[in-house]
Amino acid sequence: MKVMVAYASKYGATQGIAQRLGKVLDECGYEVDVVKCADIDRASGYDAYLVGSATYEFNWRKDARRFVERNEAELSAHPLWLFSSGPLGTEQVDKDGKDVLEGARPKQFAEYSDTLHPRGMQVFRGAYDPDKIRGADRIIAWMPAIRDILPKGDFREWSAIDAWGKSIADDLQSADARP
């Protein structure tokens, strides 16, 4: 069974998550291609898809949104999972007591849920290294109000990413996952 893991990443954290998911699926016996959304026009020839993006201001990156729009028919006809990365830090709940990962769901999860019917949607924590920031983001990142509130570090929870990848592999093995 062939699986595509397509991603849009700005500074590499989401790319790392996509690569890790691809590795987990590969180790479970699937033929996996991990590709940038911007590098592929048409997604065809795969039995299942995972699509993910970094999230900024509750939106997926443009490359991921365009990829989904171009390939809506193909994606909706096969088993599909969506993932996102973004929240920084280790807090489980925000100041209002709400789940941080649930609160970081991109708008696209709700939009794509109705049209693509994904089997699962997951938000993962991201990473932030101010030394990697470039372009206009660098100006914003060094503003004292923003610089002081953004926790620095790699907050990706590899065990959660591995577990989600294994649950996808298990789902693909079930008879009803076959296209």
What does this structure look like?
The chain has helices at 13-27, 62-70, 72-76, 100-103, 107-116, 136-141, 144-147, 158-173, and strands at residues 2-8, 31-36, 48-56, 59-60, 80-85, 120-124, 127-128, 153-154. Helix 1 (13-27) packs across helix 8 (158-173). The protein is globular. The chain has 179 residues and is an alpha/beta fold. It is built from eight helices and eight strands, in the order E-H-E-E-E-H-H-E-H-H-E-E-H-H-E-H. The protein has one domain: Rossmann fold, CATH 3.40.50.360. This is Flavodoxin domain-containing protein. Residues 3-169 form the Flavodoxin-like domain. It comes from Microbacterium alkaliflavum.
> How many distinct beta strands?
8
SSE-based structural type: alpha/beta
What overall form do the CA principal axes indicate? Answer: globular
The assigned CATH architecture is 3-Layer(aba) Sandwich
Biggest beta sheet summary: 6 strands, mixed
The pLDDT mean sits at: 89
Order of helices and strands: EHEEEHHEHHEEHHEH
Uncertain residue segments: 175-179
Please outline what is shown here.
Pfam families: Flavodoxin_5 (PF12724). With 179 residues, the chain is an alpha/beta fold.
